[in-house]
Amino acid sequence: MVERRMAPGDDETMDEIHRRLKESEAANLTADPQPPGVWERVQMARHETRPYTLDYIKLVFTDFHELHGDRRFGEDAAIVAGIARYHDEPCVVLGHQKGRTTRTRQQRNFGMPKPEGYRKALRVMKLAEKFNRPIFTFIDTPGAYPGIDAEERGEAEAIAYNLREMAKLRVPVIVTVTGEGGSGGALAIAVGDVVLMLENAIYSVISPEGCASILWRDRAFAEQAAKALKITAEDLLQFGLIDKIVPEPQGGAHTDHEAMARILDKHLSEALASVKGLGEAERVGRRYDKFRAMGEFSER
CA 251, CA 263: separation in Å to the nearest integer? Predict the structure, then answer.
């Protein structure tokens, strides 16, 4: 299932210009044989031609049928969720979805879900549990939508409820951070048995710009903030917050969607095999212990 391009118009013309500029910028970033720096990784994680959830669904899964609505308020296009098959095995797949044109960005709310998006995600995950199907989630969001309407409909409660319920799901849950992993907006669908992270993805409690605005009162310090936040895959693996780094094609995932999908498919298969054979109690216990251990430290 892939988003269709709209008829050419003024908005799309500007989008195409913006895309070409971004591609040129990314090419300059990745032409150097040296590994990209922290700020370069931030830019690559946000690159607008980077594969999104629907791209991975098209390339890795089959027979995808999208499900809509949270059965309480309405539909949230910032999260896509549905039933599919993974290597002919029935499963559930869901994740954040951004747009690539002005209109689709607005439709997808720039990948920032509202409460109904998180409730839809949990509804579909509960369906997976009922029919004993593994769950695959894909993380790529700046964060949950910070609007008043989202707060009025209980955004904080929706995120907290997801965290609790995902910790108790009896089926395998495989999480992949594919682009931006922004705060609770990402974590709300990222409590899993195995957490993978793409090589040039980022995962943080706050965006570099938000951190810079708080600490330095100036977003111009975003690059400095990004380094201080330790948001790269290497940092997070060292801290035990993710389980494995998924390498990207040369130049980044945005340069070759099909190659990225093939690489990710191998890691998804290995991750699922590592937890599929566990008993339900053992699987849930491991997942609980895994997240409870995060943030522990000792002073010497």
Answer: 14
Angstrom distance (rounded) from CA 295 to CA 157: 22
**Hey, where are the domains in the chain?**
35-289
| Residue 160 DSSP one-character state | H
- Structure-token pair, residue 32: 């150097």
DSSP state of 42: H
DSSP secondary structure string for all residues of 82-148 = EEEEETTEEEEEEEE---SSHHHHHHTGGG---HHHHHHHHHHHHHHHHTT--EEEEEEES-S---H
N residues, the chain = 300
The domain covering 35-289 belongs, at the CATH homologous superfamily level, to 2-enoyl-CoA Hydratase; Chain A, domain 1 (3.90.226.10)
Q: pLDDT digit string (tens) for 154-167?
A: 999 999 999 999 99
Interval 165-186: pLDDT, tens: 999 999 999 999 999 998 888 9
Enumerate the H helices of 142-279 as residue ranges: 148-152, 155-168, 183-187, 208-215, 222-229, 233-239, 257-276
Question: How far apart are the C-alpha atoms of 202 and 204, rounded to whole Å?
Answer: 7
User: By the 8 A CB rule, do 57 and 64 touch?
Assistant: yes
